Amino acid sequence: MIGIVADALRPLSAPPVGRGWNHADMAELLGDAPRRPAAVLIGLREGVQPRMVLTVRTDHLHAHAGQVAFPGGRSEAGDGDAITTALRESEEEIGLERGLVTPLGYLDRFETISGFCITPVVARIAAEAQLYPAPDEVAEVFEVPLAFFMEPANLRRYTMDFRGHQRAMVEFVHGGHRIWGATAAILLNLLQRMGRA
């Protein structure tokens, strides 16, 4: 199943550049000010049933406290590219050893209400990788079977009023975790690129 995902990605040789796929929506709310670069790791742990690695952010963080997220964060000057950012942040947040990660490709860039433009890096994680949360940033690391996201019945669409704007949203609920916001939107982009949404 990881091979099917890989076939739907932007290749490593052609990382996405420019605005996010949702720029028009964000421009209504934020204007055209430059977005700060960030990257996340959409990690697929190898196994009979591949699983996607997600985190729950700690409650005391200033932004997106308590929300489900992919490991990742803002790009730093020395990172060089989105893959480096995603791997560095994953190592810091969940103890993921870089040598156990094989980047596969990219999803389309996504702009957030907090002013970032995220480059999602999709990668294979070795089955034996040990993951543990960094307590200052991550409350929990959990995994969801990739097959769960492929099931159309598990994708919920709804509309939310935000600052007087009606915004189309998506979410997933698995094992008591509500996966919404930027994380769910990035997953929707994956499903769309695979022709599953």
Automatic annotation (TrEMBL):
Which metal ions or organic cofactors does this protein require, according to UniProt?
A: Mg(2+); Mn(2+)
Q: Could you list this entry's UniProt keywords, alphabetically sorted.
A: Hydrolase, Magnesium, Manganese, Metal-binding
Ranges for domain Nudix hydrolase: 34-166
InterPro entries, per the entry: CoAse (IPR045121), NUDIX_hydrolase-like_dom_sf (IPR015797), NUDIX_hydrolase_dom (IPR000086)
Has the keyword Metal-binding been applied to this entry? yes
Keyword Transmembrane helix tagged: no
Q: Which CDD domains match?
A: NUDIX_CoAse_Nudt7 (cd03426)
Under the heading PROSITE patterns, the entry gives: NUDIX (PS51462)
Q: What is this protein called?
A: Nudix hydrolase domain-containing protein
The species this protein was found in: Rhodanobacter caeni
